[in-house]
Amino acid sequence: MDGDFSFMDFDLFEVARNECFSVLNIALDNLDIYNFSVDTQDQRNGNTLLHYAALSGNEETTKKLLSLSAYANILNEKGETSLHLACLKGHMNVAKLLLGHKAKLNAVDFCGDTPLFKSVQGGNKLLTKFLIGQHAVVNNANKVNEKLIHVAVKFDDRELVQMLLDADEDPNRASNTGHTPVQLATLHGNDEILKLLIEKKADLTVRDHLKRTLLHLAAKEDHPDICRRLISEGIDVNAQDENGSTALHLAAEFNATSVVKLLLESQADINKSDLDDYAPLHVAAGNRRGLKVLEILLKSNPKLDVKTVHGDVPLHVAAAVGHTRAFVSLYSKKYINCLNNSSLSPLQIAEENGHIPVMQLIEQLDRNNLPPRIPVFKELRLSKRRSMIP
C-alpha cells in the first residue's frame, strides 16, 4: 500500500540535518538496503553524514559511521572537514574519535582556518589545549592573514594569548583587515588581554585606516576600562582622526556616557572642533539618544556659540533633528536668534525640517525676541557632515 512505512522513504541527509540520530542509527544498521555510500555528500552544503554527526557532537553516530569506513577528511563546500565542525562546537570526544581515524589535525579550510582556529573561535579552551597537546600547528595564518593570536584575542582566550606571547608571537602583526592584536583587544573590550599585550611592548600608537587611535576605538565601543588603561599609558586624549574627530566626539556620537565622563576628567578638550568645525557639543545636540551625554558636557561649561563650517551653533543642530529636550538644555536667550551662514535661525531651521514641537518650544522660550543678528559670511568648503538645510 502507498501508505506503508519504509526506511527507503527517508532522506538520510534530512534526518541528519534535523538531528534525528536515533533514526539515522537504525538506517545505518540497515545500510545494505540503501543504495547509499556513507561518504555521499549533501548537495545543499557538501556535508557528509559524518559532518552532521560531528557538528552535533553525537558520539554514537560518529562511531557507527567510522566503523562503516566513513572517510574523516572529506571537505564540504567551505573546505571544512568533520574535525573542523567538531572543534568549532567544542565536541572533545568526537574530535578524539576523528583523530583516532586519521582525521588531519592541521587541515585548512577555504578560509585558511585549521581545526585549532575553529576551536578558539568557538571559545572551547579545553579542546584548544588538547589540540595544542596533539601538536597542532600554532603559527599558521589564514586567508585574511590572521594568526592564532588575532583569533585568541577576538574570542577572549587569555591563556592562549599568554602562551603565544611567551613563544615570541608578534603583538604588532596586522591582519589584512589592518588590525593588530592590540586593536582587537581594544575593540572587543578585553582589558586583561590588553594588559598582557602592553607588557609585551605592543605599539599603542597604532592607527586604523581612518587614522583612529586606540582611544578612538575604545570610546566608540563604550569601553571605559580600556580607555582608562590607555590614558594611564599616556595616550593623547585629544588626538584627531582623519575627519578631525577626537575620542570625545565619538563618545558623544555613540552615547558612551561613562567614557565621556572619563575623557573630561582626563582633560579632553571639550571645545575641540573637527574638520567641519563640529565640537562635541554639536554632536551631542544632534544625537536624539544622547541627552545624558549632552548634560554631562554642559556641566563642563563648553562654548555655546561654537560654530560649524555652516555657521551652525549647537541650538541649530538640536532644531534640525527635532531634539526638543536638547534644545531646552542648550537654550540661551543670547543665541536663540543666532543666524547661520544661510541666514537661518534655529526657528527657521526647525521650520525647514518640519519639527513643529521645536517651533512651538522656541516661540514659548522666546516671547520677547531680540532683533536678528547680522550674519557673518565666510567662504564654505566641502563638509563631511550634512548642512542643517534639508
UniProtKB/TrEMBL annotation:
Residue windows of the ANK repeats: 45-77, 78-110, 177-209, 210-242, 243-275
Source domain of life: Eukaryota
Pfam families reported for this sequence: Ank_2, Ank_4
Gene3D superfamilies in alphabetical order: Ankyrin repeat-containing domain (1.25.40.20)
InterPro entries, alphabetized: Ankyrin_rpt (IPR002110), Ankyrin_rpt-contain_sf (IPR036770)
Keywords: ANK repeat, Repeat
The protein's name: Uncharacterized protein
Protein's organism: Aromia moschata
Lineage of origin: Eukaryota, Metazoa, Ecdysozoa, Arthropoda, Hexapoda
